[in-house]
């Protein structure tokens, strides 16, 4: 779970993207490239991000049987007019299936949707699932709307109805103006954004209203949620303003969602298993980016405190359940 791709797309799209300030890929032809935002460089990348043959080679090297790919978050397009974002989402979703078609037994995909328009988003996730996607990746908020927004809850309920697994990925991180260096938005704001999205669903009572058939996962180990759950629980017990819409203790909702294992520290993984339970953690890596786990699965494989049965669940058993494989 939780690996990214970025399609090369055709010359017509690249020309349009450069002219209109959209994300596109500049391939240097030597195995390297740049993700561009219009005419501005966004991130240097390697061909493993867009070349499916290279991706399969990497999966062989890493010992990965099946990898689930999804959009690089710059592809979301949430700031664009909904019709344009839908057009891009459909193109990218079709490109994701073409990427996976190179080796369909090794790679499968999650779609993206124009989340700024709930009707369009519902229609596209339905089309994507019917076309072969296992589910959808969404950002953790839409502008000032967190996941407890009624429109976003409508979308999540629709995902449950059509059988789409949902991966929530942080994007557009808070307080960037206070974090200009050292990748601090990724190191501080990303975990906070993810905790915010989880608590938005718990404390608003949204999990009381969403169908239990909803399969939803939060990346990066659920951000700071597991470490700070005790603080939230204490607040729920002692401050009525915290529990006004949340009828049960926050800790009782951990069986309503999944997290991935991309926490990079055995002590953090131990805490995650203790808080979430061994059935709620999926192998995630953020592959193939440098901030991801470079030796995929090493954290789980080399963990002294996990049994062989627990490791098997995290490596594949829980993902089979989450993805309905």
UniProtKB/TrEMBL annotation:
Annotated EC: 4.1.1.45
This protein's name: 2-amino-3-carboxymuconate-6-semialdehyde decarboxylase
BP GO terms, sorted: secondary metabolic process
One cellular component term from this protein's GO annotations in UniProt: cytosol
Keyword Metal-binding: yes
Enzyme class: lyase
Domain Amidohydrolase-related: from-to ranges: 1-325
GO molecular function: aminocarboxymuconate-semialdehyde decarboxylase activity; hydrolase activity; metal ion binding
Keyword line: Decarboxylase, Lyase, Metal-binding, Zinc
A Pfam family recorded for this sequence: Amidohydro_2
Source organism (scientific name): Sphingopyxis granuli
Pathway listed: Secondary metabolite metabolism; quinolate metabolism
InterPro entries (alphabetical): ACMSD (IPR032465), Amidohydro-rel (IPR006680), Metal_Hydrolase (IPR032466)
Gene3D superfamilies according to UniProt: Metal-dependent hydrolases (3.20.20.140)
């Amino acid at each position: 779970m939780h690996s990214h791709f970025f399609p090369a797309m055709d010359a017509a799209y690249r020309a349009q993207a450069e002219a209109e300030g959209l994300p596109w890929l500049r391939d240097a032809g030597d195995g390297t490239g740049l993700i561009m935002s219009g005419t501005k460089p966004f991130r240097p990348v390697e061909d493993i991000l867009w070349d499916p043959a290279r991706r399969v080679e990497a999966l062989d090297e890493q010992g990965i049987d099946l990898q689930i790919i999804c959009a690089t978050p710059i592809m979301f397009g949430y700031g664009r007019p909904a019709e344009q974002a839908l057009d891009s989402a459909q193109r990218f979703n079709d490109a994701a299936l073409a990427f996976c078609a190179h080796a369909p037994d090794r790679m499968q995909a999650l779609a993206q949707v124009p989340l700024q328009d709930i009707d369009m988003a519902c229609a596209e996730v339905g089309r994507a699932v019917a076309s072969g996607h296992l589910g959808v990746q969404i950002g953790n908020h839409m502008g000032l709307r967190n996941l407890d927004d009624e429109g976003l809850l409508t979308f999540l309920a629709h995902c449950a109805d059509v059988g789409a697994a949902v991966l929530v990925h942080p994007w557009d991180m808070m307080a960037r103006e206070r974090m200009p260096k050292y990748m601090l938005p990724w190191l501080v704001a990303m975990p906070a954004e993810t905790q915010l999205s989880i608590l938005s669903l718990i404390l608003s009572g949204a999990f009381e209203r969403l169908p239990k058939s909803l399969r939803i996962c939060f990346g990066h180990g659920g951000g700071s949620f597991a470490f700070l759950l005790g603080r939230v629980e204490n607040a729920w017990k002692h401050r009525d303003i915290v529990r006004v819409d949340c009828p049960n203790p926050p800790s009782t909702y951990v069986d309503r969602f999944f997290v991935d294992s991309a926490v990079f520290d055995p002590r953090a993984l131990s805490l995650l298993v203790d808080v979430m339970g061994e059935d709620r953690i999926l192998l995630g890596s953020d592959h193939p980016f440098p901030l991801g786990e470079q030796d995929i699965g090493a954290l789980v494989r080399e963990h002294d405190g996990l049994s062989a049965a627990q490791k098997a669940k995290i490596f594949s058993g829980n993902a089979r359940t989450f993805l309905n494989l």
